[in-house]
Each structure stands twice: as C-alpha cells, then as structure tokens.
Design brief:
By secondary structure, the chain is of the alpha+beta class. It contains five helices and ten strands. A hairpin with a 2-residue loop joins strand 9 and strand 10.
Length: about 180
C-alpha cells in the first residue's frame, strides 16, 4: 500500500485532527494498569514458596508490564481509527502506524446513531465513503477486512463504522460536526 502515511507523522501536524481517546484519561488508565501489574509482581514475589496464586500473579503481571513497555502503546493515537484535515479523511490502523488518506469529497454521509458491529461491539458512528475499487481494496487491506464484510449502501458507496474513542456521545457529536463542516 504505497498510498499510506504514518500516523505518528500525522499526529505532529497541527492541521490534522485524530479521533483519539482523551490524553489524560488514556494515560491514567494505562498508568493504573501498569501500577496494578507491578503490584501483582511484587505480591507474587512475596512469601516463602510460590503458590499457584503467586505464580499466576507473576505471570500475568509480567505479561502486562511487557506489553506496556513499548512506548507506542502510551500514545493515544495507537487506538485512533479516524482522522481528518481540510483535504482528506484518514482511515487509521494504530497498531501498524498506518493511515490511508482518502479525498474529503469521498465522505458522502455521517451516521451518528450507535450500532452493533459484526462481533457484537457497540459502534459510535459510521461514515459512508464513495470509493473506487482501488481505494476500497486499500482500505480493506489497511483494516484487515475481507471484501465480503463490506456494506455497500449504493453503487460505489461503502459504510465504515467506528468506535467512540472513549468520548461521550455529546463530545463525539461535537467532533463529528467539525468533520462534516470543515470540508465545506
């Protein structure tokens, strides 16, 4: 996918908005998780003999600490799924640090009604995007989806649903209003 960009580079630009979790809430959650994991390790090391409970605490505490040791995991953009600027809408894949720029004109509709996804998860909103076959193939490759899991609402127009990114409904509505009005 030669058309993709780095999310880390987009995050440095002032003119790009990434729909990320609120920074303080995200880092607080990770900090509490890290603190709990370290506490589990310390508790697991206490005592004369390692019991089953101590071993489980050591194992899972160690796994969580190892996962959180990667600096990229502490960046809120790691969980971002969508971004935009005046010319583009970006589909994002945080764990691969990739962003697919699509022209702003591809955005045909915004649906703010919460929906249930294919795997039973609650999705906060959906975008209808008019995509060429090439753009659709790039989007599906980026998101790791199969073509049979796409929802075509009209010829060449596909619906992509997204999570709320830790935002309440009111705040999400404000952010998405900006998305719809900026391109005008």
């Amino acid at each position: 996918m030669s058309n993709t960009r780095s999310i880390a580079e987009l995050a440095k630009r002032d003119d790009v908005y990434l729909l990320t979790p609120p920074r303080w809430r995200y880092r607080l959650t990770l900090g509490l998780l890290l603190g709990g994991a370290l506490w589990a390790i310390v508790w697991g090391l206490q005592g004369q003999a390692i019991t089953f409970a101590h071993g489980v605490a050591l194992f899972f505490g160690g796994v969580v600490v190892a996962l959180l040791a990667r600096p990229r995991h502490w960046q809120p953009w790691y969980l971002a799924e969508l971004g935009w600027d005046r010319q583009h809408v970006y589909l994002l894949k945080g764990d691969r640090d990739q962003a697919l720029p699509l022209p702003r004109s591809a955005l045909t509709a915004l649906h703010q009604t919460p929906q249930i996804g294919e795997q039973g998860e609650w999705l906060g909103f959906a975008l209808d995007l008019a995509l060429s076959d090439t753009e659709l193939a790039q989007a599906l490759a980026l998101l790791g989806r199969e073509p049979e899991h796409t929802y075509e609402v009209a010829p060449g127009v596909y619906r992509f649903a997204f999570r709320r990114a830790w935002h309440g409904r009111g705040r999400l509505r404000q952010l998405l209003t900006v998305l719809c009005s900026e391109g005008d």
